[in-house]
Write the C-alpha cells for this entry.
Amino acid sequence: MSRIGKKPVPIPSGVTANVEGQTVKMKGPKGALALVLPDDVVVKMDKSSIKVDPRTETKRARAMWGTSRTLVANLVAGVTKGFEDKLDITGVGYRASVQGKNLQLALGYSHDIIYPIPEGIAIATPRPVEIVISGIDRRKVGQVAAEIREYRPPEPYKGKGIKYAAERIFRKEGKKK
C-alpha cells in the first residue's frame, strides 16, 4: 500500500480541475497545466479532490500510484503558488545577468555562455552571483536549474562553480608539500 497514493489531492478554491481519461487539466491564478498519467493508474475526481488508484496489483502499478498522486499534487501547487529554484555562483569573476530573453553567464571560460530562457520560465538575478528560476511547472523549473548548473558544477577543492542554494559541497583538502 502506498501511503502517499492513498491520500486524495485536495483542490483549493480558485482552481478548476478536469479529468478526461488519463489526462488531468488544472487551471488556477498562475496559469494552466495538463498532465497525462500512465495507464497503470485510474484517476477519479470528486467534488473537491482527485483520487488516484492502481489499476492492477502489479509492481509497476503500485510504483506509479504514489508517483502519479504526487504529480497531480504538483499541478495543484504550480497553478496556485508556483515553484522556485535558487542557484548560487562562487568564484572570482563569475557572474550572471539577464539580458532580454537570455541569461548571460561569465564562468571563467574564454567566452560568455548565453542560455536562452525557455517559455513559461522566469529567471531573475537579484545579485550577480545569484540566479532565481521560477515557473508553474516543477519539472521545467528543475530541468532549467540543472542545465544552468551543468555549465560549471562546483568543484571540491575551492568550491568554485554553480550550486543549488541549499546544496552543501563536500570539500577536499589540497595536496601537501
Remarks:
- The radius of gyration is 20 Å.
- The CA atoms of residues 122 and 134 lie 5 Å apart.
